[in-house]
């Protein structure tokens, strides 16, 4: 529960650096909420941290990416695309 509150505060403060640290967490729930928080922030520069979360296995460290993490990362990337189209 404390992790979820921390993620919400990170999203409200628009602090992608803190969320990027949480993307490396061994807990898949924390990683999925961090991906969702990055999408909420709407900072396209954060998209690079989400790309390794899309395949079933993280190629950086060989750890599995559960479906919940992959879906949240994809949703965040879709949010960035929608925001980019809206701003043009």
Features:
mainly alpha, Leucine-rich Repeat Variant
Question: How would you concisely characterize the structure shown here?
Answer:
This protein has helices at residues 2-13, 16-22, 28-41, 47-50, 67-87.
Can you give a write-up of this model?
By secondary structure, this protein is mainly alpha-helical. It has helices spanning 2-13, 16-22, 28-41, 47-50, 67-87. Helices cover 66% and strands 0% of the residues. The chain has a single domain, classed as Leucine-rich Repeat Variant (Alpha Horseshoe). Helix 1 packs parallel to helix 3 (28-41), helix 2 (16-22) packs antiparallel against helix 3 (28-41) and helix 3 packs parallel to helix 5 (67-87). The chain is globular, with a radius of gyration of 12 Å. It contains five helices and no strands. The relative contact order is 0.16. The longest helix is centred in the last third of the chain and has 21 residues, at 67-87.
Write the layout of secondary structure elements.
Elements: H1 2-13, H2 16-22, H3 28-41, H4 47-50, H5 67-87
Helix pairs in contact: 1-3, 2-3, 3-5
CATH class: Mainly Alpha
Percent of residues in helices comes to 55-70%
Shape: globular
| CATH overall fold name | Leucine-rich Repeat Variant
Individual helix count: 5
The CATH architecture can be named as: Alpha Horseshoe
Largest sheet data: none
Q: Roughly how many Å is the radius of gyration? A: 12 Å
Q: What is the element string, with H for helices and E for strands?
A: HHHHH
Integer tally of domains? 1
Rounded mean pLDDT is 79
Q: First CA to last CA: what distance?
A: 38 Å
Give the name of the CATH superfamily.
Leucine-rich Repeat Variant
Task: Tell me the structural class.
Answer: mainly alpha
Proportion of beta-strand residues: under 5%
Low-confidence parts lasting 5 or more residues at pLDDT below 50? Answer: none
Number of strands: 0
